[in-house]
Amino acid sequence: MTPEAEQLLLDGLDAFGLQPDPTAVQRFRHLLTLLQDGNALVNLTALKSEHDIVLKHFVDSASCLLGGHLAGDQQVIDIGTGAGFPSLPLAILNPALRMTPLDSIRKKIDFVRATAEALEMNHVHPLVGRAETLGQTPEHRGRYDRVVIRAVAALPVVMELSLPLLRPGGLLVAQKGAIGAEEMAAGERAAAELGGQVASVEAFELPVLHDRRSLVIVEKTRPTPARYPRREGVPAQQPLFWKAK
Ligand code: SAH
């Protein structure tokens, strides 16, 4: 990592009130190298500069910590983690979290697993699978303290993939761009249908780039009805209360 990129990382995290310790900084450096080396494999860093990776992936992922909803040794699942976002930065910044990065694509999870091992993060347990399947599996349904999700789907879909996995009292932390009124309304109705309630929507800007972001916090208030999540693919094909795109 160039000194400029490292300064950008430190300044970006500082804007969120985060000061990484030396181990965390070393892990971010190592992660950047592994992403650059694994580029062809995970198709994430194509045509992206260090500057972009640091801001759009590392700092952006860290924004899930705004508001202090992820802390202690919570059991956290990251649905649709791709190359490990936001879970790897979150696990670097908060090594007490017990983190399960989930993706349906095996080669992505192979990369995340190899990366977690290289960074010596035993608290990260990557998993290949679909959220719909896990949501109907007793070992996973209703078992998580937190769900994090970034750049996977529209809010109503996010709700159906996430809420079944949470224990009552657990929280969904969904990182989104700017959210339109219609998507928000459909998301709120879907949450209610699935046993959740939108607790807050925190709007903020990504440091330096000033991209608009929202952190949607949803509380699981009661058990999800047994018919949800519907079978694989249906939540995205027929989103609750929302026109499919
Ligand atoms: N969260 C990452 C990747 C976003 S791309 C980031 O912010 O960079 C969306 C990812 O979600 C893809 O890797 C896709 O394979 C995965 N995905 C989509 N629907 C899924 C589902 N129902 N269950 C598990 N993974 C899913």
Provide keyphrases for this structure.
245 residues; alpha/beta; 10 helices; 7 strands; 39% helix; 20% strand; binds S-adenosyl-L-homocysteine
In words, what does this structure look like?
This protein is α/β, with parallel strands linked by helices and 245 residues long. It has ten helices and seven strands. It has helices at residues 3-15, 22-37, 39-42, 50-62, 87-93, 106-118, 131-134, 155-162, 181-193, 234-237, and strands at residues 75-79, 98-103, 127-128, 144-150, 166-176, 196-205, 212-220. Strands 3-2-1-4-5-7-6 form a seven-stranded mixed beta sheet, sandwiched between helices. Helix 8 (155-162) runs parallel beside helix 9 (181-193). The protein is globular, with a radius of gyration of 17 Å. The termini are far apart. 45% of the residues are buried. The mean pLDDT is 94. S-adenosyl-L-homocysteine (SAH) binds next to strand 2 and helix 7.
Helix content: 25-40%
If helices are DSSP runs of H or I spanning 4 or more residues, what is the number of helices? Answer: 10
Bound molecules: S-adenosyl-L-homocysteine
Strand order of the largest sheet: 3-2-1-4-5-7-6
By secondary-structure content and strand pairing, the structural class works out as alpha/beta
Strand content: 15-25%
Through-space gap between termini: 39 Å
- Tell me about the biggest sheet? 7 strands, mixed
Instruction: Point out poorly predicted stretches.
Output: none
Order of helices and strands: HHHHEHEHEHEHEHEEH
General shape = globular
